[in-house]
User: What shape does this take?
Amino acid sequence: MMAIPERSLSTIYRDLRRIRRVEEKIIEVYSSDKVKSPVHLSIGQESVAVGVCAALEPQDIAFGTYRGHALYLAKGGDMRRMIAELYGKVDGCARGKAGSMHLVDMSVNMMGTSAIVATSLPLAVGYAFALKARKEKAIVVCFFGEGAMDEGVAYESLNFAALRKLPVLFVCENNQYAIYSHVRDRMPHGDPCARARSFNIPTERIERGDTLAIRDASAKAAAAIRAGEGPQFIECMTYRWRDHVGPDEDRKWKYRPDEELDAWIRNDEVARVGAMLDDATRQRIDAEVEAEVTDAFAFADASAFPGGEELDQYVFSA
Amino acid sequence: MSSAPKSDRSLTYAEALYEGTRQEMERDPGVFVFGLGVDDARGMYGTTLDLQNVFGADRNFDTPLSEDAMTGVAIGAALAGMRPIHVHQRMDFLLLCMNQLVNMAAKSSYMFAGAVNVPIVVRAIIGRSWGQGAQHSQAFHSYFMHVPGLKVVAPSTPHDAKGCMIAAIRDNNPVIFMEHRMLYQNRGIVPEEPFAVTFGQARRLTEGDDVTIVAVSHMVVEALRAKHLLDEVGIKAEVIDPVTLAPLDMDTIAESVGRTGRVLVVDNSWTMCGASSEIVAQLVERLQGSRSFRTARLGYAPTPCPTTKPLENLFYPTAMSIAQTAYELVKGKGDWTPAAVEAKEIAEFRGPF
Ligand SMILES: Cc1ncc(C[n+]2csc(CCOP(=O)(O)OP(=O)(O)O)c2C)c(N)n1
Assistant: This one.
């Protein structure tokens, strides 16, 4: 593993913690009806977005999915505007038009997310095509669940990216379930990396959601992309602790073994990375994160709803 | 109600869909139900619950996320003589099926002069409320109405949900079966024995000589609420549910408009090039020269669906906007504002999905 300087370790921990705490707070307020929108929580999966983004430069472009809170925050998206968006308020990142499923923050190159599975892969490839054509330094990172690897468009996108050696890092967040459907019931061998390799795209799988291993693999892949070697593919094994959608635990649906979930909960990356810091540093970060989260929800509460005149704004661009 | 006769039995819309499907699966071993999540513990809002236990995993099964290919698989199985029901949790996902539905399913009978047929049912659920937003709330019935060779049905009552499901399964053609999540808990009387609703027969739900209101899918519920509001100001509205959009029963609609001289079409989608445009155009073709009439249309606001509640409230027609528009058709611009009525199924809906 590459040596991680202390400062970036505390940054990584801070990001993990921010995502965890913000989502725990969403769970807390959900029954109040302030969030009138489906939420697809990332609790348990924080390390993927945080590990990958720790290896990116600010100018790099991120595409993600409706399960987007973690990526949005890890890429540097504004927490206040995220919560205001979930509340449907005018200070939200899309003025209330998006809700949780379509977060966007172009100031940090966080592209708007889509709720149609696998739609982001070809868009990421197209963006990478433009970067390459313009000889820009940035690369594109495209996050998607392993469910997206069921869709034909994923393969057409991998193919074109490989064909044109485009600067794109594919990040498959393999939480093993698409809603309640296990990957083995959807893929004969359940191995997204093998599929990517069939397009001559180099791959690496990171087990157990290890944040620093994800960061290192991403850094290596990003370096190869920047060196002009074309697309790279990493598969991050991870696990969603909550229901596919909504704030609840989902043991009652019995589609996955309790022991499997419990093992992943014991393997908590937020706690594990936190334990690498000295107590004083961790406590300071925790306190700062609490303040930031509290402030973000207060900001959202105080923000107004958009007025009716906003309904038809932005149907077309000016 | 324990002493109620069988014919008074009531079911929810979701239960009616389930019952119709199950009865057809019992009758015909060629019927099978597949699609994302159709065998999970939630059973597609209850409409497919336990079908796998009853009929086995060959007749009720989950699929990979592969809408395009799975639509082709349905068509292939239908060509081989089976009767697939392909279920989509949101109609938005049908856009991934478009090529197979329009180029293959809709064309096979004609292109091959009846040598083959494609008896598939494509169930598409329309999402609404709880911040479904731009990509989980769309209704595309007009896209399909446009294409010869496809049938499009949009039942609004539990009775018609069951009867249309059975008719769709028995039909030898591809049928797009449009459901609305906000209808699922509606209760109504549904005969227990299997029955088919004849396609191309609209229902006159209320009688009135002042204004005809044609409403599609969930908008039927809102139109009936509007009718009560209009009663209060002495306007008698005739509410018509086309039930099936292709074929479309223009006889019933034109007869009504011939009497009332006023028609409001309320669609559960956008108005531009929509079902409402088609209905009004056909009315003009039929009635011009013999009967003049006034007309108005309501539908989604001409924007993508916003997520935030205050804007979402403006996006959809309501009982109030329907009543107001109908009132103005009858009386011209007036000073009447209908009382607010709650759409219970929307107000009481709790997410997360
Ligand atoms: C094209 C398409 N088909 C179906 C759905 C419904 N759907 C939403 S999320 C989901 C599961 C996706 O699983 P995965 O890609 O592994 O991501 P995860 O939700 O686990 O993060 C499905 C089937 C959709 N949104 N888009």
The pocket of thiamine diphosphate is lined by residues A 67, 115-117, 145-148, 175, 177-179, 244; B 36, 65, 67, 89, 93, 96 (CB under 6 Å). The mean pLDDT of chain A is 97. Chain A touches chain B through 49 residues (CB under 8 Å).
